[in-house]
Known about the structure:
InterPro entries: Rossmann-like_a/b/a_fold, Universal_stress_UspA, UspA. Belongs to the universal stress protein A family. This protein is α/β, with parallel strands linked by helices. It folds into 2 domains: about 1-140, Rossmann fold; about 140-285, Rossmann fold (3-Layer(aba) Sandwich), CATH 3.40.50. The protein has 8 helices and 12 strands. The chain has helices spanning about 15-30, 50-70, 85-95, 120-125, 160-175, 200-225, 240-245, 265-275, and strands at about 5-10, 35-40, 80-85, 100-105, 130-135, 150-155, 175-185, 190, 195, 230-235, 250-255, 280-285. The longest helix has 25 residues, at about 200-225. The two termini are about 20 Å apart. Residues about 105-115 have low confidence and may be disordered.
Amino acid sequence: MTHGIVTGFDGSARSEAAVGWAAAEATLRGVPLRIVHAWPWLGSARSDGPAAAPHQGALRELDEVTERLRGVHPGLDVVTEAVADDPVDALLARAAEHRLVVLGSRGLGGFAGLLVGSVGLAVAARSTTPVVLVRDGAPAVPADGADRPEVVAGVAGGSSAAVLEFAFAEAERRGGRVRAVHGWEAVPFWTAAGWVPPQEDVELRGAEIRDGLLKVLAPLRAAHPGVEAVVETRTGGAAPALVAASARADLVVVGRREHRLGTRLGAVAHAAVHHCTAPVAVVPHD
């Protein structure tokens, strides 16, 4: 595995946003950036055959985006690659050799639509490397002097360690804070106003969850003394809590179990990548 970042590019606005975010992240980390332009194989090996046109177009687009990136990040080491292969297969093959994958998405935000690109979802659901999904219009890494960045970490069960380690490292690079978010469902009871949870029970359960999160955060705070960490608990479920917190976040981090049956994201990660307004990092864990 290298220490670099790999990103996919197809000439679209959302992939341009992803490449821009990846370049800013690579600059923060001081690592190279690989930009991959992949398209399905058309079955001709001739240099003037059907496969030649997309290859030549891809090379031209890669040259153009590289020139733009070097204007913004003059010291960035950029490597480009045009390959006739299924985009998901091409990106997954290269993901194993890199520390991070960055891809574009088409999410609408809120709960209105389900438009994350199929390539991004497929790679995020199968990659053994963390994947960041960036939508068109998402901010890149804040510049010096900007408001303090915030990394939101979705904390739940067995995914907490991997998610928090990733979140603290990202916050440390940005000089920002970590907001550990846990959403939970209150058990309701019947009143004249309908089914509502007892307020005392909600407050007690919320305090218990908060205390548990503070204990989980303690070793990470010690390992990253320059990173401020805050805890937020919300009733109403994990996904709505993350979506709400994403409105003020520079990055949202969620977990994905590596050995989950099938090739789909879990419910919370799926909701986050579709509805969060900030870029979302999907971190695989055991």
